[in-house]
Please model this.
Amino acid sequence: MARISNDKIRFFYSFLQSPKRIGSVIPSSSFLAKEMFRSVPFSNISSIIELGAGTGVFTKLIAENIMPQTKGLIFEQNDAMRNKLVEIFPDLHFYPNAMEMADIVQKLDEPAVDVVISSLPFSNFSQEIRTQIAHDIHKVLKPNGMLVAFQYSKQMKQTFEKLFPEVSVTFVPFNIPPAFVFTCNKIDESSEKNAVEENRLW
Ligand SMILES: C[S@@+](CC[C@H](N)C(=O)[O-])C[C@H]1O[C@@H](n2cnc3c(N)ncnc32)[C@H](O)[C@@H]1O
Model:
């Protein structure tokens, strides 16, 4: 008989208690995890945020791949799951609510981050919360920062496209349920302008 891991049991139990907030019955697959981090330049970033860590499928990859000086800020609203992650990953910084992300980042020595990884179940949120979190993500990112978010539908595509000049979407069939991965680049407008100016000079 196939062995079901403690993480899967904990995740499913949390889902039964709060299905809309958890948003899925089991943790993400390794295929989805691979796609989420495909374009994250781990050796070139000084900060990374994860929103909706769950049992830590992505948190583990962050902890294993970030440079020692890189700050990892992890948000998970479920107390039981977050407390477990605090024990496993003592070098990362944990917070309960993605809605507090902007305030928390503002208080950092460097008040902007390079990458946001999101597993938040946006489609289960009210329109107001959805819009606020999407705007906060854009706000906390550095000028050339990147958001990678997975969703089970394309419902958030327009919202992301309104905020980010470059949005690409890939599909991961080997996940329950299959998922879309949105990679959204903020793009540094000042360096774009400089490049245009330089081209003009030449
Ligand atoms: C679909 S699960 C993804 C879990 C994990 N990242 C994975 O891929 O297996 C979404 C997670 O977002 C968390 N979550 C929902 N709303 C949140 C919020 N406002 N702040 C932080 N975490 C939240 C849920 O508790 C849940 O663990």
Q: What stands out?
A: The chain has a mean pLDDT of 92. Residues 127-140 form the longest helix (14 residues). The first strand starts at residue 47 and ends at 51. The pocket of S-adenosylmethionine is lined by residues 21-24, 27-28, 51-54, 57-58, 75-78, 81, 97-99, 119-121 (CB under 6 Å).
